[in-house]
Amino acid sequence: MAIVKPFKGLRPPKELVEEVEARPYDVLDSEEARIEAGTNEKSLYHIIKPEINFEPGISEYDPRVYESAKQQFEKFQKNGWLVQDTAEHYYIYAQTMQGKTQYGIVVGAYVADYMNGVIKKHELTRRDKEEDRMKHVRVCDANMEPVFFAYPDNEVLNKLIMRYASTKPEYDFVAPIDGFRHQLWVVSDATDIDTITTEFAKMPSLYIADGHHRSAAAALVGAEKASAHPRHTGKEEYNYFMAVCFQASQLTILDYNRVVKDLNGMTSEEFLKALTKNFIVEKKGTEAYAPKQLHEFSLYLDANWYSLKAKEGTYDDTDPIGVLDVDISSRLILDELLGIKDLRSDKRIDFVGGLRGLTELKRRVDSGEMRMALALYPVTMKQIMDIADSGEIMPPKATWFEPKLRSGLVIHKLDD
């Protein structure tokens, strides 16, 4: 069963939320964060991207940068830009993108559930990225940003959420960068709090949708603190980390596409001919063409779009990994034809989140930066959950969730 708990969230006053809130630390680089923060000293970027507090060029891994995060966090609390709730609450968080709204519940997720596999993963993590986030959690003694979980649809929780959604939210704003709407409600009613705790306790698993490195870092720091605490009881706040849990059916997963610098020594004609071994290749012309179904890919090459349909026998519908289009394209195009064997390290390939659209793929190829682009049909949430349940790991760069969670709406302190 999944164990969750309410917590005393640290939050900006209603009138300051739009000055404090920020995009997640890992969706923009240091210079972008510096520009977005501008002269706004209340921007959370001063805590989650603390290298912007120094001259450009400083390493984001410099010890002074982590220490600056701690100092800024203390400053935000001292100045009243972040204020802790006096009682434990759950929070309901809604995101609206292109007319579609998804509702999540902000909870304290149980560290032990991560360690024992109740909280299930579908991606590998890199130790260096884990350690970076662990340093940040340690120095702030808080989960500054939530991780993104999915849970199997639950009608009791859905009715509770919809009841809150019909009331006035605590926060309600449209983010300036992406134009998405964000709303937050505070769940303070004791009966509703008990209902949320009880319904999650009936679930055999929760699933990490986005934020594998943050999940690992938060859980590992919690486990560290437990080991170091001489009178550890299991009830301390550090035994939990902050997550926003969404019903699986509500989530939007976009395509995560590829652009490649060269054709591995082949001409365009040779490459297209080589593709016919495993794909039905059909030229679509100069108008942008997106895949219409699983096992179909869109290729952009020499100012033309092509449909590539994987032939029968090139994939296994009974294999949770082998059925994935990211696996098919990695095996039969990137590896077999282009010699790209490690998607994490090969400098000949780059990745473009689906929110940027096919236009971005075309731009990068037409500019001469890249030789070709490959658009994939989006992975489904069911595929992700099936893989996590099987204990398998998805290929790298397989999922792109939108909208991203905003940071700074709620913060979870580990020492409360």
Mean pLDDT: 94
| Oligomeric category | single chain
Number of strands: 21
Q: Categorize the overall geometry.
A: globular
Discrete helix count: 13
Q: Quick one: biggest sheet?
A: 9 strands, mixed
Kindly state the percentage of residues in helix: 25-40%
**Helix-strand makeup class:** alpha+beta
Radius of gyration (Å): 23 Å
End-to-end Cα distance: 25 Å
- Strand proportion: 15-25%
Which stretches are poorly predicted, pLDDT < 50 over at least 5 residues? Answer: none
Describe the structure.
The protein has 416 residues and is of the alpha+beta class. Helices cover 31% and strands 24% of the residues. The strands form 5 sheets. Strands 1, 4, 5, 6, 8, 9, 10, 11 and 12 form a 9-stranded mixed β-sheet that branches. It has a 6-stranded antiparallel β-sheet with strand order 15-17-16-19-14-18, sandwiched between helices. Strands 2-3 form a two-stranded antiparallel ribbon. A hairpin with a 6-residue loop joins β9 and β10. α4 runs parallel beside α6 and α6 packs across α9. The longest helix has 17 residues. The two termini are 25 Å apart.
Task: Detail the topology: elements first, then pairings.
Blueprint (H helix, E strand, L loop, with lengths): L3 E2 L4 E2 L5 H4 L9 H8 L7 H4 L14 H16 L4 E2 L5 E8 L2 E11 H6 L2 E2 L6 H14 L1 E2 L3 E5 L3 H11 L5 E4 L6 E7 L2 H12 L4 E5 L1 H17 L11 E8 L5 E2 L1 E5 L7 H8 L3 E7 L10 E6 L2 E7 L14 H11 L13 E5 L3 H10 L5 E4 L5 H10 L9 E2 L10 E2 L3
Parallel strand pairs: 6-11, 8-12
Antiparallel strand pairs: 1-5, 2-3, 4-5, 4-10, 5-12, 7-21, 8-11, 9-10, 13-20, 14-18, 14-19, 15-17, 16-17, 16-19
Helix pairs in contact: 4-6, 6-9
